[in-house]
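Pasting as-is:
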Amino acid sequence: MVAPGGVRRQVLSKLAKLLPMTLSQLLALSLYAVLLVHYLACGFFLIATTYERAGQQTWLSSYENWDKQFASDDMFVQDNLLQLYILSFYWGFTTITTVGYGDIVPYTDAERMYSIFAMYCGIALMSIITGKLTTILAQFVAQRAQMQMQLRMVSTRANHWEKGASFIVT
């Protein structure tokens, strides 16, 4: 027979094992989201620079200081490239989260098609995250219910033991 404190320790031990796994799963999902945004940002930037070099207006052209800051022959200077990456990453993140502030908008058909693809990726990612969070919550609720059931069993056994012990003593 297991002592009442022993069952509680076993349940808490199982819960402690679940929690790090849950946190690691959430961390992995977050990293996948950042990686997806990175790839979308690089693709969006690639499309824009390809069309810019062909002389068409793109989302890069929509900024007031585009001609002064970026449109020189040394467009890929490190400082400019970092700022353009941040803009692209910002576009990717606002697109997949369906926020879409509207300050970076696609101009060419290729940019629009890519934006549609990015929105689809965002919907898929949010669905995966929602499903994973639902699974984690369901596991947590099931383990909590199991723990409560075990505690009730221990309490019932303890009550029966006390009644039996008091019966023998009297």
